[in-house]
Design brief:
Blueprint: H1 12-23, H2 25-31, H3 35-38, H4 43-52, H5 54-68
Length: 76
């Protein structure tokens, strides 16, 4: 049985790494203005925050889906 969830099987760490590689921390912090992307950003600290903050995680997941579907370019 196949899941209808497009994020099924993709870890939050993989999503975050993909976005950082695509945009970089600076641009990512403008698109999603949260402190863990602005002040001394790291994957580890960002994962800790995103796992505890559902609204921020949702924004990151939505942006990832835009990027992989070809709708989220780096011209934001």
């Amino acid at each position: 049985m196949k899941s209808n969830d497009p994020l099924h099987g993709i870890t939050l760490e993989a999503i975050l790494n993909h976005l950082v590689n695509h945009y970089g921390w600076v641009e990512l912090s403008f698109i999603i203005p949260i402190n863990c992307f602005k002040s001394k950003p790291s994957v580890k600290s960002s994962l800790t925050f995103l796992r505890k903050t559902p609204w921020a995680r949702k924004k990151v997941e939505d942006l990832y889906l835009e990027v992989v579907s070809g709708k989220g370019g780096s011209d934001r």
